[in-house]
Amino acid sequence: MQAGDRYCPNCAGTLQVRESGGIARPVCPECGRVVYFDPKVAATAVVERGGRVLLIKRGNQPGYGQWSMPGGYVDRGEVVEEAAAREVWEETGLRVEINGLIGLFSEREHPVIVAAFAAREAGGELAAGEEALDIGFFSLDALPDLAFPRDRLILQRWAEGHRPG
């Protein structure tokens, strides 16, 4: 549990970790409620130009100063594909069309599910947004230091032919 996850959303009792259904989970000793923390959903897009992929140098944590595909959290009520396109625009100034799903990626240690999409440029002007220290296109055989292990897996799946459209 993280610092903000210490209290029961039902009665404000202090949560304790106990076994529930064979898994250690936060449980409220006051009201008995088992608390389930839902994972976050993020969306990213692989944008290609001339055989090179678009990456941003992250200006926030996690992964500050390292490179990743443009992406971020999906807002409540937002369609995942629209979130991926919005994140590309916010972080790079490029408008994109989403061509299809590359895959869904999750890791046991990280509470984020990432939906990765293939995309093609559809306008805009390349410029680093507020959350990017730098942006650029890179060939797959000369990638900079990537922020997350899943980044390499996403790019590998994309390169193996999971390029819809």
Outline the structure in words.
The radius of gyration is 19 Å and the shape is elongated. It is built from 2 helices and 9 strands; from the N terminus they run ββββββαβββα. 15% of the residues lie in helices and 41% in strands. It has 2 domains: 1-37, Ubiquitin Ligase Nedd4, Chain: W; 40-159, Nucleoside Triphosphate Pyrophosphohydrolase (Alpha-Beta Complex), CATH 3.90.79.10. The strands form 2 sheets. Strands 3, 4, 5, 6, 7, 8 and 9 form a 7-stranded mixed β-sheet that branches. The model has no long low-confidence stretch (mean pLDDT 91). By secondary structure, the protein is mostly beta strands.
Q: What letter string, H or E per element, gives the SSE order?
A: EEEEEEHEEEH
Q: Output the CATH class name of the largest domain.
A: Alpha Beta
**If helices are DSSP runs of H or I spanning 4 or more residues, what is the number of helices?**
2
User: Which architecture of the largest domain does the CATH hierarchy give at level 2?
Assistant: Alpha-Beta Complex
